[in-house]
Specification:
The chain is α/β, with parallel strands linked by helices. It is built from 15 helices and nine strands. Bound molecules: S-adenosylmethionine (SAM).
């Protein structure tokens, strides 16, 4: 039997069940850390299958907790699994798992929000961006409060090819609150179409894989959970710096139900607001009365390109933030000082 066949057929030896481990190490879920565990191995196997083949793969699992998902990743034939767990109570149970899968499981006790994944794997697994996908996956069932900031950070990393994406187009399979999963994958015109839909979809192919009912978790969360798979695109659909795209999209979607020109207006200081909004809409050739949720990605691209063009002519525009202006005006009213005093800070 070839070495890779052996790896693919690797099965963990008999171990205490995840439930037994939880009892053994007294791993009560911490409500403050939004810990909800998946104990059903058929469900964790299903989640892991959404990543595609893990044969000989390198995997970073975020938030392994008692290790149910980790077992499924190992059983799927991954060669090198790096787990990053913040809560030290889970480390002994993970060590037990590591002993059962010699040389396959590396444990990092740390916070995924700070972890330098660009240093976590050998560089020789990298593939050039345009080439094949690297055999590296990120998989995780994270608390909702961490999953959303993390995906925003990773989308920026995709745009800049940094962090986990120094190895190429690393794929991600992650859980989110069901509504967030729907927003991430919502198409143009759908009710859930939002800022997150555009930010994710201009950079990735995004797939809403399946929904896990809340009752499948221990303890049961208030909401259902969506599993989402991301594959970074070879060519982002918008070719402008991430921060610039983020600014335009954030402004457009701040008035989701209004005409899109309403949000576009807020990209510009009051003195030139009407004139530059008109110029931007014309340059982008987008109907100002389209609703933000109805904008296609090519239309958003045209708007971002038009804003980049206007900003190149007047770089001050890049620093202008409508919400910041509102905040300063509010502060000035409270302190009864001229707005300009704050604007210069
Ligand atoms: N993966 C396990 C499962 O599916 O049963 C546990 C899921 S539980 C929802 C989330 C896990 O992520 C917990 O073990 C928690 O301690 C861990 N976690 C939370 N925030 C984290 C962070 N910032 N970095 C790393 N791990 C984190």
């Amino acid at each position: 039997m070839s070495a890779s066949r052996k790896l693919a057929s690797f099965r963990l030896p008999p171990l205490p069940t995840v439930g037994e481990l939880i009892k053994l190490y007294n791993l009560r879920a911490e409500k403050q850390l939004s810990q909800n565990f998946l104990l059903d191995l058929r469900l964790t196997d299903k989640l892991v299958r959404q990543a595609g083949s893990l044969r000989d793969a390198h995997v970073c699992e975020v938030g392994p907790g008692p290790g149910g998902l980790t077992r499924s990743i190992l059983n799927a034939g991954a060669a090198d699994v790096l787990v990053v767990e913040k809560d030290s109570r889970f480390i002994p149970g993970l060590k037990l798992l590591s002993e059962a899968a010699p040389g396959k499981l590396r444990i990092v006790h740390g916070d995924i929000l700070n972890y330098r994944m660009d240093r976590g794997f050998p560089r020789n697994i990298s593939k050039s961006w345009e080439e094949d996908l690297p055999n590296l996956h990120i998989i995780g069932n994270l608390p909702f409060s961490v999953a959303t900031p993390l995906i925003i950070k990773w989308l920026e990393n995709i745009a800049n090819r940094t962090g986990p994406f120094v190895y190429g187009r690393t794929r991600l399979t992650l859980t989110f609150q069901k509504e967030v999963a729907e927003r991430l994958t919502a198409s143009t015109g759908s009710r859930q179409r939002s800022r997150l839909s555009v930010m994710a979809q201009y950079l990735c192919t995004v797939r809403n894989c399946f929904t896990i009912p809340g009752r499948a978790f221990v303890p049961k969360p208030e909401v259902d959970v969506g599993v989402v798979h991301f594959t970074p695109l070879v060519q982002p659909q918008i070719q402008q710096p991430f921060k610039l795209v983020e600014k335009v999209v954030r402004n457009i979607f701040q008035f989701r139900r209004k005409f899109c020109h309403k949000g576009v207006e807020k990209l510009f200081p009051e003195a030139c607001r009407m004139e530059l909004t008109q110029e931007m809409m014309q340059k982008a050739d987008v109907d100002p009365t389209v609703r933000p949720t109805e904008l296609t990605i090519p239309q958003v691209r045209a708007l971002v390109d038009a804003y980049a063009y206007l900003s190149a002519h007047d770089p001050h525009l890049l620093n202008y933030e409508y919400r910041e202006e509102l905040r300063l005006k509010h502060l000035a009213r409270q302190k009864k000082v001229p707005v300009d005093t704050f604007m210069d800070m």
